[in-house]
Design goal:
- The protein has 188 residues and is of the alpha+beta class.
- Helices cover 18% and strands 39% of the residues.
- The strands form three sheets. A six-stranded mixed beta sheet has the order 3-2-1-6-5-4. It has a six-stranded mixed beta sheet with strand order 9-8-7-12-11-10. It has a two-stranded antiparallel sheet with strand order 13-14.
- 27% of the residues are buried.
């Protein structure tokens, strides 16, 4: 059964985005506790590229499928899990990358929606925090996706966010989304 093509984020209203996110049913990976079976020989690069045995996985539908069975363990490691097996997967930074932004409203009435490299749609808010974390390469923005899984916000998307925040002239520099304020300049 082929996967449906991804909708164009620019043509969707935030109501459409919220509905699509609500309708997407992910497997209940948090409820599955199979025996650990070994290593998947898979890796997710810092840029969001998925690899198997060192080669990039070129089929977008395969990446979308694998991303739906990804889980973060309590020790911080990542696994691919089904009802009958659990395999380790190496994640260099975050398993997802936020590659596209849609913003509606302004100030406290703003809503920020993101498309991930997996095709998932996530709306920033109390359950999907946008945070700035210090790394050896400097500060990087992350978006909580689900169950401890995060998306690294792509540099171009971060620049869009900063331009919006600077236009609003808030102190600290940041943006509201779904009633939550997210500082974007390192001030918390």
């Amino acid at each position: 059964m082929p996967m449906e093509p991804l909708p164009d984020l620019a043509t969707l209203s935030l109501t459409d985005i919220a509905r699509l996110a609500q309708e997407k049913r992910l497997p209940p990976v948090d409820q599955w506790n199979p025996t650990h079976c070994g290593d998947s020989e898979m890796r997710i690069g810092r840029d969001g590229t998925w690899y198997h045995q060192g080669s990039p996985i070129g089929r977008e539908t395969m990446v979308r499928l694998f991303s739906s069975i990804l889980r973060r363990e309590p020790d911080g490691s990542h696994v691919l899990v089904t009802p009958v097996e659990k395999l380790d997967i190496e994640v260099e930074d975050a398993p997802f990358v936020a590659v596209e932004l849609k913003s509606e409203g302004e100030g406290r009435d703003r809503t920020l929606a993101f498309r991930l490299n997996s095709g998932d749609l996530v709306t920033a808010g109390p359950d999907h925090a946008l945070t700035l974390r210090e790394t050896p390469d400097g500060p990087h923005p992350y978006l909580h996706v689900r169950g401890g899984l995060e998306a690294l916000v792509a540099r171009s998307v971060y620049y869009e966010l900063m331009n919006l925040a600077l236009d609003e002239e808030s102190d600290p520099v940041g943006l509201w989304s779904n009633g939550a304020f997210f500082a974007l300049d390192g001030a918390q």
